[in-house]
Amino acid sequence: MLGVTQKLSVRALSTGSPIQEVVVIGGGLMGAGIAQVAAQTNHKVTLVDLNQEVLDTSHKRIHNSVARVAKKIFKTDEQAGGAFVSDTMDNLRLKSSGETAL
User: Fold this and answer.
1) Angstrom distance (rounded) from CA 86 to CA 16
2) HEC string of 48-88?
3) pLDDT(89) > 80
């Protein structure tokens, strides 16, 4: 039986291989949201922004948001919720240089 993370990541392009890695340029609200959704669906994500403060803020924002999602999905299973948060955050990498992102 597939877990929640696996169910979310089953989507694939109809014309090619499934997407495995995502690079998001810009760590603002939209970039952080895209990075979060991709990380939650078990994709390896690199979030790039030239400003380290923006990256730090994005990391905190993503972590807090993923924790809220986990609390809703895993209402009765705190351990599974913690694993979801940990797995999601493990999929996220932060880079302050585009050259090191790829």
Assistant:
1) 29
2) ECCCHHHHHHHHHHHHHHHHHHHHHHCCCCHHHHHHHHHHH
3) yes
